[in-house]
Amino acid sequence: MTESLDRAKLENLALELTERQFEAVPRLREWHEGTWTDREFYKRYMIEVVLQIRLNNVADAYALYKASYGDYRLAGKLARYLADEIGHEGMFVKDLAGLGVTLEQIDATKVLPATAKTMGYLRLATDERGPAPVALWDWYLEWWSDRYMQAITDAAAKEFGIACTRGAQAHLDLDDSHGHDDMMFQTTAQAVEAYGSAADAYADLEIYVDLGTEQYRQLFAAAIDSHGA
Q1: How far apart are the first and last CA of the chain?
Q2: Most confident of 66-75, 157-166, 175-184
Q3: What are phi and psi of 3, to 5 degrees?
Q4: 6-11, long-range: CB < 8 A, 24+ apart
Q5: 46-72: buried (b, 16+ CB within 10 Å) or exposed (e) per residue?
Q6: What local confidence, expressed as pLDDT, does residue 34 receive?
Q7: Contact between 131 and 64 (Cβ < 8 Å)
Q8: What is this structure's pTM?
Q9: Strands (E), 13-172
Q10: Cβ partners under 8 Å of residue 134, min gap 6
Q11: DSSP state of 196
């Protein structure tokens, strides 16, 4: 019998991998805990959030396309999540305007190599294993946001003003009201059962966190090292 995806095991693994991430990148723990923030880092981070949401929507749509070949229950869940999330980058665009960043500047920013690498992995994994890798990626983003994004947002609101974080807070409130963490775990568990294995999911999670570590290093290099904060 194939091993089912265990939520406690998955969450514990996510915590262990995040701890490893904190050890690998200076200031990252403080960033997640809300005890340190920096205007230039926050700006570049939020720009990447906007760019990544756009790419995530494409990855989600491709996973939905793959699931639509007969697995209508799973396709329906993926479609619901995509409908919930599409266009939400606009919330963060408004926050960035409060920080002096225009939409034209966002559009002219090249996505970080680590972000592009993550999206490439998701596309190739979806071709090979169907929608399960993307469903797990979405769950990880929701788990991470539930655990850390409020502290990050509160720190930014305190340092830069509430006007610069209204969109981020609205997105947090929406995710909470829609129960996206629970929703995407159930979707992932169904996708893993139909298309993959729990072992694949745990391995994918480690890849995602490692790519996230690479992304944070690139963010710090782009934003912090440039002005010595």
Answers
A1: 53
A2: 157-166
A3: -65, 130
A4: 6/198, 7/185, 7/189, 9/202, 10/139, 10/185, 10/201, 10/202, 10/205, 11/143
A5: bbbbbbbbebbbebbebbbebbeeebe
A6: 97
A7: yes
A8: 0.94
A9: none
A10: 59, 60, 62, 63, 122, 125, 126
A11: S
